[in-house]
Write a structure and sequence with these properties.
With about 900 residues, this protein is an alpha+beta fold. It has a 5-stranded mixed β-sheet. A 5-stranded antiparallel β-sheet has the order 9-8-22-21-20, sandwiched between helices. The N and C termini lie far apart (about 135 Å).
Length: about 900
Amino acid sequence: MPQSKRTATGVLGGLLGLIGLSTVAGVLITATVTPAIAVSGYAASSAITMFDKMPSYLEPASLMLPTRIYKKNADGKNVLMAQFYDQNRIPVTYDQVNPVMYDAILSSEDKNFYTHGGVDLMGTLKALAGNASGSSTRGGSTITQQYVKNVLQQNCEFDAASEEEVRACFLQTTVNEGAEGYQRKLQEMRYAIQLEKEYEKNDILLGYLNISSFGGTVYGIGAAAQYYFSTTAAKLTIAQAATIAGMVQEPNTFRIDKPKGTWTDKAGNARNGEADGYADTLKRRDYVLGRMLADGKITRAEYDEAKASPIEPKISQRKQGCSQAKGAQFFCEYVVSIIRTDPAFGESKEERAAALRRGGLKVYTTLDYDLQKAANDAIDIVPASVDYMDLGASGVQVEVGTGRVLSMVQNRPYSTKTDDPSTTQVNYNVRKQNGGGSGHSAGSTYKVFSLVNWLQEGHSVNEMLNGRTGLKKVNTCDGATRDQYADNSGQTNHIGNFENNSGYTGSVYRFTKDSLNSGFLAMAEKISVCSTNQVAMQMGVMRGDGTPLDEVPEGSGLSANVPYNVLGDANVAPIDMAQAYAAIASNGILCESKVIDRVLNADGSDHAIPDTKCERVLSEAVASTAAYTLEGVMKADGTGSGARTYDGTPIFGKTGIHQFLHTWMDGSSSEVTTVVWVGNANAKKKNGEWVNTRLDNYYESGYRLSRIRNGIWPEMQRAANAKYGGDDFPSPDEELTKQVYVTLPSVIGMSIDEATSTLRSAGFSVTVADAIDATEKAGTIVEQSPGAGRVAGGTSVTITPSNGEGVAVPSVGGTPDDAENALRAAGFGRIDRECTQQEGAPPQGVVTGTDPAAGTMVGRNTQITIQYQAANCGGPGNGNGNDGNDD
């Protein structure tokens, strides 16, 4: 066991450092340095002055340590998900190292460590003399000086942004030639002497073992023991300790993780590998063993046994990167993208990269074990690849009111291989800047922004509009309009309804429930497309490439503020849609997506986390009414009925299909929002037509691809409901759900087509009744119900046309015979009589009227009943029968 206290010689060395820094420098310079410096143009006196003025204080910075990312396990405990490092280092305490390791490093590198004051004068004199004569100055440095060099090099590398800069740091701290070499050596001495004043010997020795390079990315004795021999520093054998101690002289030459060798001789033969038994490392190890024997650190028997053993690496690779995060690789990659881009981890990209790979941070994430597992199980119904399209699927869940991302899954595992169609490095859930692609066309899930826009403009969801197919004059932006044909013709630039629905006049509530394209285009006649796109951005949604939805980058080929935007043609990221729907569920509060709950520095103190804000973007009235409307989508007759959870938790949602290339299901409880996308990840157009396979042509796992979302979303949402619950959504606003009254115009006298067009344009549905007898030209409207005036918007109006065959019943009088003659003369052939006995009436009877009454418009074949009075209804000419008048 090395001693922790200095000997008298060590005290003397320290006093020389404290009392006579200039004297020491003078001795060194006079004895060995002056000739070389003089050759370089320096005077001895200036060298002495330079030494005196060198900085004497070096604060050992924090070690470059791996940053670790954690997730919760099934028991709610934080477990390692992934780690990242430039230097594979496992820091150890003094007692966690086998004393034989200390003995090995001291015997081989600095046997006088506990007796000098930071600088070994004789060793340094020899080294500097060698430098002056042109030989290497590798020897002569004490453990303290080597520690200083490692600290300086690490401090430089911490800010290095490239391999070139790392190499420059190495050269800067190891330069041995000329005046710069002397200056570096003297500066090391200056720092070393100061360190010996500030720190105990054992602390310096441990610091050296924790910071030193042991080849490749292996740094520190803890990582070296684990990597090369799959053990701990406390359990190293004598032979293993000597092997590792020998590495510090030339780490990348003496490393033993290269079976094919670490270098090649002039003949092209690999050296120091498995074939030659790691000959160079073995020779160096045996040298260390010999020094340990000579110093009395090991016995002859221990020496013989260790020397007789071969070098037998047992490499244990310490994994890094998100490949460790089984089942959550893409969530992990999203977290990493946040660390690389958020100012909380540094102002520059170099600082953020250093925080990730060198900062020793502990990053605790928001991932929910139960929801992630359920999501992975649910999305398993989508194969990783099929031979007929680039089939992709993803799911993401966020916590309402916080934005915490609880799960993130997709059908393909993460890989950087480009030739494997069953893997991908593209995160389908996020924007391009976070590792995603350009997003996916949102389809009808985007209609939620038209709904919110409608409500924000003060319109009621019970306002009635003409949602039938036909020409719509869509309000694009700033008062401009564009003609848009909403029909099922299949013509280019014509927009049809799903399953060729011809549309109807109805309420916005019903349009949403049925996802009626022509209905939403009717809404766009009153609210502009650009304002709808701006509402989407207000709720946190941008294009997947970060482009604003109401702008188009030059040359992108995208479109903005055109009618088709209303129906969700823009490519967006599912995570953006999730936070937008969560804003409705939280009654108008939008929370930015959050994946990091807490970050600790290497010393255990709290580190800043990304500033993910929550702010109100919708009024409570708008949010509650939007939620109420979206709840209708999930009812038995709504388009979301196939995704119901049937667990009693209130939910709302919206379905979406775009060109049968993308299908979505977005929805939420009051606690958790779930968004699922399934689509052709590589759908392309050629000559205006989609050339890749459409989702409606195939089935997988018993689900039609265009509906496969309905097999994933309910499973994910049910898991969330089971764990987080969910309350009723707030009641909708009375003003925004009120029945809207409008003026019903009169269409009497119009043709059927004119009347129908007039009523539908005014927002009414129309029923055409059977034509009736009337004198007006056939097809002329002669009746409407209800009549003109103030009625509820969207009221169904029945219009009745003339058949053009009507005639007015003439006014008749006199006796029944007189009346009948008059009626027959007017062209009526079906006549009946109806007598009422009345005392004092003429015996022949007197006519009192007809049924239908005089002036009534009837057909000539209509039966007319003559009504009359007689003293005796049974007398001659006063019968009540038809009297043979039937035709």
